[in-house]
Amino acid sequence: EDQVTQSPEALRLQEGESSSLNCSYTVSGLRGLFWYRQDPGKGPEFLFTLYSAGEEKEKERLKATLTKKESFLHITAPKPEDSATYLCAVQAGGSSNTGKLIFGQGTTLQVKP
Amino acid sequence: DTEVTQTPKHLVMGMTNKKSLKCEQHMGHRAMYWYKQKAKKPPELMFVYSYEKLSINESVPSRFSPECPNSSLLNLHLHALQPEDSALYLCASSLGQGVSEKLFFGSGTQLSVL
Lengths: 113, 114
What we know:
The complex is a heterodimer. Chain A is mainly beta. In chain A, 0% of the residues lie in helices and 58% in strands.
């Protein structure tokens, strides 16, 4: 069964304290791995798509990496405005899965000033 | 315009009411989605429309009825809902229902069923 697991569930950091969020996945034929940010009461906001092992993408203080079994979202010198829930999602292979995203449970990040 | 607009933002309804959620995008996207999200849980896919035709129904109860009048609009008609249907309902769109298409989400409708 296709599955996505994120850890930790919650993470508290001091401003400037770098860390990483983990997304482990088990899918039959990965088509794409997505990272989203979600603020309370809002819809998810797209951050990155990764397609193959070894791929990396960066945006401001965020860097996403991908291996054959997991993805990391590295946050460098975070600021309070980075506080949000970060969702990982994958699209599995197979024609019946086109358009379907399997989401992990999310990591809620709190950055204190 | 890179926005997906959902109305209303909040909705309270009784179990005998009929209401509709609306979603609109003007990005020229041809795939539109309804997701349901309970508190502290990830979004769950309900329906996918591709080129105005229903392509995926994730075994959603018939008290939820989707409609796609044109390529820019998506509705979700609600009837005889249960309290456990209370959730954040998210609309999303993508360029197409293709492989690895990134989704643009609206801010959602927070629904409470009394």
